[in-house]
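Cross-check.
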Amino acid sequence: MTPVPPPAPPVPSAAGPADPLRRARRSWYVYDWANSAYVTTTQTVLFAPYLTVVARRAACPGLAEGEVCRTPLSVLGVPVAAGSLALYTITAATLLSALLLPLVGALVDRSTHRHRWLGVFAGIGAVAATAMAAIGGDRWQLGVLLALVATASLVCSLVVYDALLCDVSPPEDRDRTSSRGWALGYLGGFLLLALNLALVTFPGALGLDAGQAVQVSLASAGIWWGVFTLVALAGLRTLPRRDPVADSRVAGRGPGAPFRQLLTTLKGLRRYPQVLRFLLAYLIFNDGIQTVIAAASIYGAEELGFSTSQLVTTILLVQAVAFVGALLFGRAAGRFGAKNTVLVGLVLWSVTVLAAFGVPRGAFTTWLLLAVLIGLVLGGTQALARSMYSRLVPVGAEAEYFSLYQAGERGTSWLGTLIFGLVAQLTGSYRPAILALLAFFVVGAVLLRRVDVTEGARQAQGGHTQ
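Predicted model, tokenized:
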């Protein structure tokens, strides 16, 4: 009689107590906590309105409150309306990022410890973000320069961060892992922004004026980003060492190797048609999302007449709801699938844009109701898009392909801000500019429906070969 072999020991699940990746995964969450505070306080709320004030002060010295500044600034010899400078700065920063990202991905995938590049990019960005405290008077040029450095560094760090999702979580758990990262990021952004709301609302309590309160808030976002990045790196050190030299896709050595590897990756894209379809859809609908995020504070301040404290209150509400929304979307994806859940989110984004167009000036309660809707869909759509794409990425080329993803997420979100700025400048109103963003969500949803995630995941498991 053949003896019955003993049962194999149980394999620990991704959330089990013996999971060796648990510490790394928790540390991965922390980086979302770290950078989201900067994205919320600086990029979303304070930077654009503050740079607009500084630019108008430079273009029209002595302008009385309520008067319209009609004198443009000269940026490299090109006349630029002071009210559009912040939007054009975002456009320039994202174009710069688009040029850097593919090379960054090729460089990072050649590293034995990818998380170290996360520290490099985040460190540069945090220093630039902290230095924004020096923006003041009529120094709009300094504001533009620091925004370029901080934005490019942030996006480069996110290439590494997104690629690490494939290292800290198995495919079946990535919807949940990605959603938790986004949720924790919104919570971190909420906490710092709440403190900054108190500061800009009551600056006199610390002996500051309104401008100084904004400067301190900008610096706090950079410091938060840097300090918590160090916490994240401490846990990510537990990830096993990679051996990129043994990978067939590594295109030799030397200074030109990342360029050769990038060309190899781009040529190989034709073997992954679902990746191409997804990237095209994501490039379009996320352009709309990023433009809404970037332009919301300007739209609220200039078109609807809300104060800085009201705008910060709005973003706080968005952050609080988005924390819950990201988790709810993660649960919905487990039941209905990530693709279907994202498509529902894009329908809700379209409703949001239409509603924003019709908000009356000064109607703060209506504006807050709109903020609740934005919060529900904001984190969920982005978190699930990231985890969906992680299934389509060829094994062994995560950073390279996530560099293309970041080009669609933030690195090339220049078209939306450019259109928004141009429409606002040509019409003299931000309302038609916000309505123009509707096309991004409609077209993006139509293209996303054509993506076959199951087939794409099957192709990805074959890896990336030359």
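Residues 198 and 221 are 15 Å apart (CA to CA). The longest strand covers residues 73-75. Passed to J.P. for a second look.
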